[in-house]
């Protein structure tokens, strides 16, 4: 019975994540009208599912270092805490980082159950979380400047049209990396079987279609995005997450993409970047993750 | 295929907008004939203006139908409006010309000479703006834009000379007012060319930035 409850809660969480992160994956191509909303969401759904099915093992091997196994009751607590945090974020219209939140929840559970944690792996995670956004920011800034120089003599319309096609491709692969890393993270604590996989696939579809509206607005406040820097920010962000996935490290698409946006903005000569949404986002990520750790620890310890 | 239309949305609109320049050329050629004959009918000009209005409606529909990036929607609408202004001001100019013939021969000479010069400049501006709409080269786009600005400045000089002559000559008030109105309408046409080219270059460079 509890097993079904866990699957049900996992369904809800994955649906929330898929919807919550649609602004990062397909926001650009939908917002700039390269595709319709329906087509943008469809591309993202295919990307999520492809990434989840192709690379879910990497996150399982990584998370084994913190929590090799968990009972259904512990899994129930974990997913309930994660869902509560996500619902709050959804109401506040903050794109939430499941990677950070769920990782802290897993750590909270591991601490409460006195599991032998591989602290080297935790150090690796923290190193990735600190280094990746900074690397992404500076890489995006440098690439934006280089790209502008390289494309300035290219034919106007061929360049613009090529960038739009590229944006569609990067949308698919951004969703792919999110499916592999973030959704793969949720799958990593559950039993490996076809029922779980089918549940996750259906949750991705439901969440993407029904739960993506509000978050699109917050991301669009940070900087008005153009085709060239949209392609650059998405590409660098997804590469960072893919590298993290291959190392089995949970890394948030939301964080890498947000810092890439700032890097793109910094690459402009005359910049008008609104810092307040970033501060709001960072505050949201960190506070929610810590709250998740504390609540998970308390629930399991009790 | 709708996704393909969205990919080339901005390019399509700009290339479609060159139809307005085709209409502007027809109106300018007709205006030249009217100025040369010192008489004629406004009817054909009006028909061309109405044709331009149908193109405007079609372009505005394409712009708002979803193939244009939302942050450029306003600029696109203003750009189409400016092209429409070129046609409207040409119609006003011809209408004003036909409304009154000065009895002072020196005034009529001044008007004909100035309007012929303006027509030549309009023809040049039409050619330049059409090329801006079809070019795929950034450097070429900037050069054409700079040329349109030069043409507009030449138009300002002709307008200033018309004003000066109007004040210097001993004219009836009706003739004086007629010359001033013609100068303003003719100058408005070239101002609209400049504004349209400013908007076009802004749109293209913001797509590429």
Number of distinct beta strands of chain A? 0
Helix content of chain B: over 70%
Judged by helices, strands and strand pairing, the structural class of chain A is: mainly alpha
User: Strand-residue fraction of chain B?
Assistant: under 5%
Low-confidence stretches of chain A: 220-224
- What profile does the largest beta sheet of chain A have? none
Helix run count of chain A: 13
Measure the end-to-end span of chain A. 22 Å
What structural class should be given to the helix and strand makeup of chain B? mainly alpha
Q: What coarse outline of chain B follows from CA principal-axis ratios? A: elongated
Order of helices and strands of chain A: HHHHHHHHHHHHH
Architecture overview:
The complex is a heterodimer of chains A (302) and B (209). Chain A has 302 residues and is mostly helical. In chain A, helix 1 (2-20) packs parallel to helix 5 (72-92). Chain A contains 13 helices and no strands. Helix content of chain B is 86%, strand content 0%. Chain B is built from eight helices and no strands. The radius of gyration of chain B is 19 Å and the shape is elongated. Chain A binds chain B through residues 31-36, 39, 148, 151-153, 155-161, 164-165, 224, 226-229, 268, and chain B through 2-3, 6-11, 66-71, 135-139, 141, 204, 206-209.
Short synopsis of the structure:
By secondary structure, chain A is an all-alpha fold. Chain A has helices at 2-20, 22-25, 27-31, 37-63, 72-92, 98-112, 119-151, 156-188, 194-210, 215-220, 227-246, 253-266, 276-301. Chain A is 79% helix and 0% strand.
């Amino acid at each position: 019975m509890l097993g079904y409850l866990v699957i049900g809660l996992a369904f809800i969480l994955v649906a929330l994540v898929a919807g919550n992160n649609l602004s990062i994956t397909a926001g650009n191509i939908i917002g700039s009208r390269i595709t319709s909303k329906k087509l943008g969401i469809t591309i993202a759904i295919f990307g999520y599912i492809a990434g989840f099915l192709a690379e879910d093992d990497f996150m399982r091997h990584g998370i084994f270092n913190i929590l090799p196994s968990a009972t259904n009751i512990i899994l129930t607590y974990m997913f309930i805490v994660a869902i509560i945090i996500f619902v709050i974020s959804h109401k506040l219209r903050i794109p939430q980082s499941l990677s950070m939140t769920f990782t802290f929840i897993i750590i909270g559970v591991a601490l409460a159950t006195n599991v032998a944690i591989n602290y080297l792996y935790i150090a690796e995670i923290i190193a990735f979380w600190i280094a990746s956004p900074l690397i992404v920011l500076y890489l995006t800034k440098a690439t934006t400047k280089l790209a502008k120089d390289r494309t300035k003599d290219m034919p106007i319309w061929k360049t613009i049209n090529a960038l739009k096609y590229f944006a569609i491709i990067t949308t698919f692969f951004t969703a792919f990396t999110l499916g592999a890393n973030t959704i793969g993270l949720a799958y990593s604590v559950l039993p490996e079987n076809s029922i779980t996989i089918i549940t996750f696939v259906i949750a991705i579809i439901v969440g993407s279609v029904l739960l993506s509206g509000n978050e699109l607005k917050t991301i669009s406040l940070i900087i008005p995005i153009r085709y060239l820097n949209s392609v650059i920010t998405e590409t660098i962000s997804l590469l960072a997450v893919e590298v993290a996935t291959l190392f089995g490290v949970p890394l948030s698409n939301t964080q890498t993409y947000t810092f890439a946006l700032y890097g793109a903005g910094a690459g402009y000569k005359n910049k008008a970047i609104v810092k307040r949404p970033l501060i709001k986002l960072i505050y949201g990520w960190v506070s929610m993750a810590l709250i998740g750790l504390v609540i998970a620890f308390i629930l399991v310890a009790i | 295929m709708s996704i393909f239309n969205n990919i080339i949305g901005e390019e399509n609109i700009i290339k479609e907008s060159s139809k307005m320049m085709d209409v502007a050329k027809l109106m300018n050629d007709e205006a030249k004939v009217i100025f040369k004959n010192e008489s004629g009918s406004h009817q054909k000009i009006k028909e061309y203006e109405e044709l331009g209005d149908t193109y405007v409606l079609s372009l505005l529909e394409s712009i708002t139908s979803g193939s244009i990036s939302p942050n450029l929607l306003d600029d696109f609408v203003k750009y189409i409006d400016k092209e429409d202004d070129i046609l409207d001001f040409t119609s006003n100019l011809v209408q004003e010309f036909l409304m009154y013939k000065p009895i002072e021969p020196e005034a009529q000479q001044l008007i004909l000479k100035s309007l012929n010069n303006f027509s030549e400049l309009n023809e040049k501006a039409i050619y330049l703006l059409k090329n801006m709409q079809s070019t795929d080269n950034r450097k070429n786009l900037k050069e054409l834009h700079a040329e349109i600005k030069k043409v507009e400045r030449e138009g300002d000089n002709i307008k200033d000379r018309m004003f000066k002559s109007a004040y210097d000559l001993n004219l009836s008030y009706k003739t004086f007012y007629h010359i001033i109105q013609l100068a303003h309408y003719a100058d408005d046409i070239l101002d609209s060319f400049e504004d349209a080219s400013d908007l076009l270059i802004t749109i293209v460079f913001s797509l590429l930035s």
